[in-house]
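2024-03-11 09:14:02 DEBUG pipeline.ingest accepted 1 chain
2024-03-11 09:14:02 DEBUG pipeline.ingest length=544
2024-03-11 09:14:03 DEBUG pipeline.predict start
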Amino acid sequence: MSYPLRRAAALALLLPLLLAGCGGGGGPAGTPVFRAGDSPGSSGGSTSGGGSNGSTSSSPDPAGPSASFAQQCAANNTLAAGNLRTSTLDTEKKWLRAYFDEAYLWREQVPQVNPSQSAYSGADAHAAMDAYFEALKTTQTTDTGQPRDRFSFTYPTDQWTALTRNAVEAGYGIEWKLTSPLPPRQIQIAYVEAGSPADRAGLRRGDQLISVDSVSADVGDPFGVDALNAALFPDSADAQHDFTFARGGVTLRQRLTSAALTKTPVPISRIVTTPQGTRAGYLLFNDHIAPAEGQLITAMQGFQAQGVRELVLDLRYNGGGYLYIASELATMIAGTARTAGQAFETLKYSARRSAENETTPFYDTSCILVGNNCTQEQPLPTLNLTRVYVLAQSGTCSASEAVINGLRGVGVDVVLIGGKTCGKPYGFTARDNCGISYFPIEFTGVNAQGFGDYADGFEPSASGTAGTRLVKGCSVADDTGRALGDPAEAMLATALGHVDKGSCPVLPSAAAGARVQNSAIGEGAAAMTLKRHPARSNRLLVGR
């Protein structure tokens, strides 16, 4: 699915409450690999963990290996380099069909598709190829009826590289929270990137969107929803839109101009105190992108120097990114004595590719990625904790879920505070062709105990059980009425109270008001899905 071309429909299933971040996998050196989500028992044409909807018969065999059609691009494909535009869209489709057969985890479930249909043609080569890509995905569903493959996507290669390597993304510096896909949606600002256009305009966490360009946040038709998404998530810099917000009964109007923003993946690292006086580290971690590594190391060095014995890891907006960063973070939390020689995550491909199955270890040295290469391998600081509190919601995805699963795999007591995570134990390797990066799901991952069956997300439970998706913890919603890192914010307050009592605390009335949202939603209006860059909702792998 092409994120710039249409709303991220796959993420509708992942992000009903908020917009979040992502995680990684394994592959040959210099190859970015990404991570997505469902039953680790699935391989090749198997359908474990879910039923079947629609046809699962294979499309006709590919015309040959993908290499025989690679970088032979259509004349109208403006994403491809000019010297490669010497072929036709039909050749690009042959490459894609062959690549699906070689790489896709569910290659035997590719539906019958006629590539010459008008839906997969036209003047817009990217739109045509994206539509064909979508048509090749399995129609299988999970046990709860969700599409098994709701994570595969396509993206322009140059835009993908800009974010994953340099943390650069066009926008206003706003992380949006969507309470409901249908009116009343209650779209709020979850946080604001420091120094961004939104920050300079004085906007802040908790501001509620009323309208943008005179389109109501509760617009009920598909065209209006498209207009909202186009304004909330501009595809380029210098896009101007007029916003109206409400804050405490006051109306705020701001014209915002998008800019190319460099994200700060670790914006908060501080010491907080429980009601009974226990000191704990609080770390807000939003993106597993390359610049995060150095920031995480600095934060952990600070916690180590201050003798931190309790840690609250805030992943509520972190959908994933590079898996090696997730592995390093887990090592810094658990220490090397517990993790040495253990698998952080083992990647399992289709039966055709079983020889490629590989293990990502708990890395105990830094990488500091430059290009596709590690440049500074130094011992990581470690806290040697036996317990960690993880703040999570539906936007906690992929590599962030790998942190949870990897730590549980070596016996670290993970206490989950918040809500159910997105459910993404799958991943893929980026493959570029004719200016488009393709990401069909290729593998599933399991921890050191062989568990990875959390397609429906990790969920806090009073009686969490090892080897299941139920994790010991407390259900509480994101409290946008308070700043992130405020000890009185509902999710953080719950974690700190649990440190003292060993059970879910009863919060003061103001914090208790931030309850988990009711799943019931209205009818008769177009559902809205918040769009977010796929690098923030996947697993990426770099060979080390």
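2024-03-11 09:14:41 DEBUG pipeline.report The longest strand covers residues 240-247.
2024-03-11 09:14:41 DEBUG pipeline.predict end
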